[in-house]
Amino acid sequence: MGDLPPYPSDWEEAATMVLADEERCLAQADLYVLTPQMLDVVIAAAQTLDLTDLSLLTQADLPTPAGVVVLPRPLITRLPTGTLQHEAAFTWRSPWRIPLPEQMGFAGRELPAVRKSSYITAARANRDRIRAARAQGLTVPPMVLDTVWFLPLHPSSPRGPMTASALTPSCGG
Where are the domains of the chain? Predict the structure, then answer.
């Protein structure tokens, strides 16, 4: 997840760490809200992209170091498993890092990246978890964090991977 040791010892500790990091980043993020018409334009543009285009993403392509875009309606996407997602919002933060495995000779080396998160509508979240939260008297927000993933950034120079000291996440973690 781009975090440095010590790593969480169990799933609960990992979830707490991810949510705390997400909360810090959301507090610093610039807010973007798309109109229904602009969402249609973005969808049409995205359909022209392929994986090669994603590999060309640079830091300069991001409008701000940290941001959140809230969609006017759920965006239905299909996961590689075939499952349909109803995305309600996306966040990003950069610079981030993807540590490379030391056991493969990359000691202390990292890839610059953008950390992205997606939020789904609470109506599409895991129903058992929603019921459990409500049974505990917790309020379920309209959007729920669903996925956190990383996209390596295209190097802005031919220097190769950056070291940990040269790359610090904008939102901690």
Answer: 11-166
CA–CA separation, 81 vs 103, rounded Å? 31
Of 50, 94, 90, nearest to 69 by C-alpha is 90
How many angstroms separate the CA atoms of 116 and 66, rounded? 10
Kindly state the tokens that stand for 88: 């309600």
Task: Tell me, yes or no, if the pTM score tops 0.90.
Answer: no
Which residue, 57, 50, 47, is CA-closest to 116? 57
pLDDT in tens, 16-63: 888 888 898 889 899 999 999 999 999 999 889 888 888 888 888 889
The DSSP string of 65-79 is SEEEEEEEEEEEEE-
CA angle 124, 125, 129 (to 5 degrees): 145
CA distance 110 to 96: 9
121 neighbors 101 (Cβ within 8 angstroms): no
